[in-house]
Amino acid sequence: MNELAIFGGERTRVEPFPAWPVHDQRDVDAVAAVVRSGNWGGFPYPGPATERFLDAFLALQGGDYAVAMMNGSITMEVALRAAGIGWGDEVIVPAYTFQATASAPMMAGALPVFVDIDPDTFCIDPRAIEAAITDRTRAIIPVHIASQMADMNAIMEIAAKRDLIVIEDAAHAHGAVWDGMGAGSWGDFGSFSMQSTKSLTAGEGGVLLCRSQERAWRAASIIDCGRPHDPDGELYTLGANYRMSELQAALLSVALERFPAQFKQRELMAKYLDEALSEVEGVRVLPQDERHHRRAIYKYTFAIDPGAFGATNGILERALLAEGIPCWRGYDPMYRYDLFQPGLSRLPVPSAFPEYFDFERMHLPVTERVSAREGMWLDESIFRAGESAVDDVAAALEKARNALARDPALADRIRQS
Ligand SMILES: Cc1ncc(COP(=O)(O)O)c(C=O)c1O
Fold first, then answer.
1. Is 343 domain-assigned?
2. d(CA 407, ligand 1 centre) in Å
3. Which atom of ligand 1 sits closest to the CA of residue 97?
4. Domain boundary among 232, 255, 278
5. pTM above 0.90, yes or no
């Protein structure tokens, strides 16, 4: 009875989850209008659809200036270059993130310095930032991970004290608000991704919010083949074509019309899940900081007690997937990636500074614990599927814990299967 689905038992969740992205006639009409206009690409930058979208995005997110780009990776590289950060400069990044956060400094010639995360948010720990600052530190890239935000008050205070640039990686945080201000509008720059899994998407795309007009002009030049964007400017800068197309911008304007209702539904269901999970033994719902005024649910993160579950997050991930629950155990620590090993990456920065990339002795305890044992991620589709889906998540977790804790051999069987 109640055998785990991974061993042939009945699945907890049989109904499928709603697909993402969604579309309706408005998307078709918006794309058709751009097609008929003949102005499909991003040149000259910015085109009318791009300008319209950027204005609406600034209204949603706050911030002063916005530059539209191809994706939410190039945004961070461009921000670093627009701030004059490059060869040999140190950039502090969390060790628990998507690889783009850490490869962006390397693409700009700078050195990513990995630091630990806060166990209550899985976001960068401000105390770890302070401890990692050296004479060569020029910037910090906090990442607002999944449904959480980094402590922007503390980070901005450190940055002001040490004269550092802050680039928020807000790829997961469309619509999120921290202490009255939108994610991405706190730092000198805010980087957003519009790639197909993101809450606001055109399949691909990115936006960089900039606090200074000068840096926004510089960023626009870098993404527009180096053309000057300062009205008095005549000089070309080193740039390439990283522009967003008008087709993407048109789709994003339509996506923005749907966004508030989607945001609200995910937020409401996430609250319902907080309550459901707080009843599940062995699950730790991440506490909500009261300054986190609006929580964007790109994915939903929580922690498990591997002792209570008789299993780590990797085993639980496999058991839950078989139960029909879309979930993930989360990122590996960045410093374990081949990309950052001098001998394996063959990239100029690790090769030139091998001492920075000698991670044999690197040990960031919270990152490693969250990554290999406790961290769990749930897909946003659960929240669009309504209360019954959330109930199924709680039921699947109960079922998995009961089975795994009762019979320690099951975790081994899953590991070996
Ligand atoms: C935290 C984070 N930063 C940056 C990116 C990069 O965005 P893009 O795929 O648009 O380049 C992603 C994408 O998945 C991400 O999850």
1. no
2. 39
3. 1
4. 255
5. yes
